[in-house]
Amino acid sequence: MYRYDEFDHSFVNQRTEQFKDQVRRRIAGELTEDEFKPLRLMNGLYLQLHAYMLRVAIPYGTLNSRQMRKLAHIARTYDRSYGHFTTRQNIQFNWPKLEDTPAILEELAEVEMHAIQTSGNCIRNVTADHFAGAAADEIADPRPYAEILRQWSSLHPEFSFLPRKFKIAITGAPHDRAAVQVHDIGLQLTRNEAGEIGFVVFVGGGLGRTPMVGRKVRDFLPEEDILAYSEAILRVYNQYGRRDNKYKARIKILVHETGLEELKKDIEAEFEKIRYDVLRLPNEEVRRIEAYFAPPALEVLADTDPEFEERKASDPAFAQFAKNNLNPHRVPGHSSVTLSMKPIGGIPGDASDVQMDIIADLAKTYGHDEIRISHEQNVILPHVAIRDLPAIFDVLVEHNMAEGNAGLITDIIACPGMDYCALATARSIPVAQEISERFGKAERQAEIGELKIKISGCINACGHHHVGHIGILGLDKKGEEFYQVTLGGSADENTSVGQIVGRGFSSDKVVDAIETLVDTYIDLRQDKDETFLEAYRRVGEDPFKEALYGVG
Amino acid sequence: MNVITANRLLDGEVVWLGDNGHWSETLQGAKVLESAEDVAEHMAIAKQAIADRFVVEAYEMAVKHEDGKLVPVRYREVIRAAGPTILPGLGKQAKPVAV
């Protein structure tokens, strides 16, 4: 994985020192809260319902065991012994003290981590496919490009005060696991007819109160142009994006209001001006960064393993885990393993300090020291030998990370909601927990098959509800929690925004409604292979509506 | 019926303005303000506490009496006064002093 060079070390250390001084000045009274607030937000420090919250960047969701151990240490030493993995592949600590944050940032810098640009109207953490560098279907590893984008966007002076925040996602496989079409810029690696690497470029995707699917602006952007083209997009956005209304300030609104063709013209004109200048990526520089992400030397093994097969045959829980939580690896005899951070009835994305240490141990022992965080709030060991899976599974069982539910109905994305978040209008996590309990039996989950439920506790949509096969949005209706349900959303290569199915449900009725939807699907599906989303796309909303609300 | 609430600067702890400018860690220690004048007067005290770097982000919130106790009207404030509903072992609800 990438290692900081002298510039990275220098800028992170400088920033840590700078923030330490800002905290000192705040406590000493040299800075007012109005002056300090934007500074703390630039360093990922929010004030939430109960306490401060520190959001730490995990660039493109990649970290090693040393870094994971440091996160465990921070959770234990400065917080309440847990952290929360987010839908942007970051981690949040929910209870830090202001006076401790300089020490936390110093500890993070020791392991090449920081909280810079995890808030504010700047380019945020670049996210990527969590199976990057390992997936069998991958065209190329997207992380070198994500790293190049990270370097370009870190403290970029022109783009530190954009009209609004700006999110970039990149995927290296035709099957999009990074939700690129719901990002401000979405990049999908591809090859042209000559076999050269480039990108399909989407602009103006986003969720929030105005969900929009990104519009394709390039079928093939050559590799060397990724920075110049990104800069051109940002420059046009920075110039024309609305600053008069924060709810209309994202680039998706600019695309919508200006029209794609006109905006494309502006982007291309800007691109032509700068494409042959300093932002043109030298081939040797791409290869230099790529070398940091060189895959571990994996021995080619038999496609399967007798002990693995025997365990599958004798242990249904292991069989379920093997069926759902393994992703095909490009090297025979290996797999990428999803460690479920969604135990039945648990809090999606939460990990205790002990679990973090265990993940680090597993990565070190079995996983070539590589760990990924997925935007679906799970943890991945990307390079694992299939023969090691029984031993890994035993450790996961012991530490409550062995649920074989990746991609199933209990693998729910949920934002922190009103249990923590100052912006939330309803709770998300208890709804996720109740759904998880309701459908938690292995047979029931298996019967339902692939079904992605995503829950947000407010219109800002951090829980990605718009792109859930079933989406749930928590609102406040006359002081009561109230949940609106959407159907048919998806965040893969066939991205779609879910449609509101009808009037919403109170907190004590919403899970019954979900069960009605699930049972309706099971009744109408053509066969067990037709997923919920496929069935919904085939039949439309009417049967679901009728099941929920009756005829008429 | 209102009270003034804020977060303590140094650790973010939720607090309520009580008598004599004291900031209480429990809602039961909050001074109940009946009139707009009362609220304005105590918001001025809160603003001074902000200037003195003791609290941040002060605002008024509605409360009611229920079973002899002060209870927030909005559910958001109920959660804020107690802690995450999903983790009863954390937040004020886990402290020995009743919320």
What would your notes on this structure say?
The complex is a heterodimer of chains A (552) and B (99). Chain A folds into four domains: 6-110, Sulfite Reductase Hemoprotein, domain 2 (Alpha-Beta Complex); 135-292, Sulfite Reductase Hemoprotein, domain 1, CATH 3.30.413.10; 306-398, Sulfite Reductase Hemoprotein, domain 2 (Alpha-Beta Complex); 417-549, Sulfite Reductase Hemoprotein, domain 1 (2-Layer Sandwich). Helices cover 37% and strands 17% of the residues of chain A. Chain A contains 18 helices and 21 strands. In chain A, the strands form four sheets. In chain A, strands 16, 17, 18, 19, 20 and 21 form a six-stranded mixed beta sheet that branches. In chain A, strands 1-2-5-4-13 form a five-stranded antiparallel beta sheet. In chain A, α1 (6-28) packs antiparallel against α2 (33-42) and α6 packs across α8 (260-274). The N and C termini of chain A lie far apart (57 Å). Chain B has one domain. Chain B is built from two helices and five strands; from the N terminus they run βββαββα. Chain B is globular. The mean pLDDT of chain B is 95. The A-B interface holds A 26-27, 29, 33, 47-52, 80, 95-99, 347, 418-420, 424, 427, 429-430, 433, 476, 479-481 and B 7, 9-14, 50, 53, 56-57, 73-76, 79-80, 83-87, 90-91.
Please describe the structure with a list of short key phrases separated by commas or semicolons.
heterodimer, A: alpha+beta, Sulfite Reductase Hemoprotein, domain 2, 4 domains, five-stranded antiparallel sheet, 18 helices, 21 strands, B: about 100 residues, alpha+beta, 2 helices
Mean pLDDT of chain A: 97
Helix content of chain A: 25-40%
Kindly report the spatial arrangement of strands forming the biggest sheet of chain B: 3-2-1-4-5
Topology of chain B as a string of helices (H) and strands (E): EEEHEEH
Pairing-aware structural class of the strands and helices of chain A?
A: alpha+beta
Radius of gyration of chain A: 23 Å
Query: Which consecutive residue ranges of chain B, at least 5 long each, have pLDDT under 50?
Result: none
The largest sheet of chain A is: 6 strands, mixed
Into how many domains do the coordinates of chain A divide?
4
Query: What is the CATH H-level superfamily of the largest domain in chain A?
Result: Sulfite Reductase Hemoprotein, domain 1
The N- to C-terminal Cα distance of chain A equals 57 Å
What is the CATH topology classification name of the largest domain in chain A?
A: Sulfite Reductase Hemoprotein, domain 1
Total strands of chain B: the figure is 5
Major pleated sheet of chain B: 5 strands, antiparallel
Could you say which structural class the secondary elements and strand pairing of chain B correspond to?
A: alpha+beta
Question: Helical element count of chain B?
Answer: 2
> What share of residues are in beta strands of chain B?
25-35%
DSSP E strands of chain A, number: 21
Given this structure, which CATH class of the largest domain in chain A is correct? Alpha Beta
What kind of oligomer do you see?
heterodimer
